[in-house]
Amino acid sequence: METTKVGIREFRAGLAEYIASDKPVAVTRHGQTVGIFIPTPGPSQADLLAFQQASAKLKALMPLDDNEVDAMLTDFKAERKAALAPRRKRR
């Protein structure tokens, strides 16, 4: 994969284009490379549709009412607090 070299000002001015691109960009300052920007692809429409379908199937298999969700969140917060407690004591 070929890397495009651009100056830092050009990079800032064309940031939207570089984000939409799939090619890495070497950012230079006074001719020296100071960083490499590697754009990551966002989720595709097919990925989003598959996620929505999986979510709908999960809701059908595991219907929860508001009380169950609240109880799960309370349990999760308690477990998380207990897991973080030893870390805080070390400081």
* Tally of contiguous helical segments: 4
- Derived structural class: alpha+beta
Question: How many beta-strand segments?
Answer: 3
Q: Residue ranges: pLDDT <50 for 5 or more in a row?
A: none
Helix content: 55-70%
Gyration radius, in Å = 23 Å
How many distinct folded domains? 2
Largest sheet: 3 strands, mixed
Strands of the largest sheet, in order across it?
1-2-3
Portion in strands:
15-25%
Q: Output the helix-strand order.
A: EHHEEHH
Report the average pLDDT across residues.
89
Shape: flat
Determine the N-to-C terminus distance: 46 Å
In short:
With 91 residues, this protein is an alpha+beta fold.
Keywords:
three-stranded mixed sheet; 16% strand; 91 residues; single chain; flat; alpha+beta
Written overview of the protein:
Helix content is 59%, strand content 16%. It folds into two domains: 4-37, no CATH class; 45-85, no CATH class. With 91 residues, it is α+β, with helices and mostly antiparallel strands. The protein has helices spanning 8-13, 15-20, 45-61, 66-90, and strands spanning 4-7, 25-29, 32-37. A three-stranded mixed β-sheet has the order 1-2-3. The model has no long low-confidence stretch (mean pLDDT 89). The protein starts with a strand and ends with a helix. A hairpin with a 2-residue loop joins strand 2 and strand 3. It is built from four helices and three strands.
Per-chain topology:
Elements: E1 4-7, H1 8-13, H2 15-20, E2 25-29, E3 32-37, H3 45-61, H4 66-90
Parallel strand pairs: 1-2
Antiparallel strand pairs: 2-3
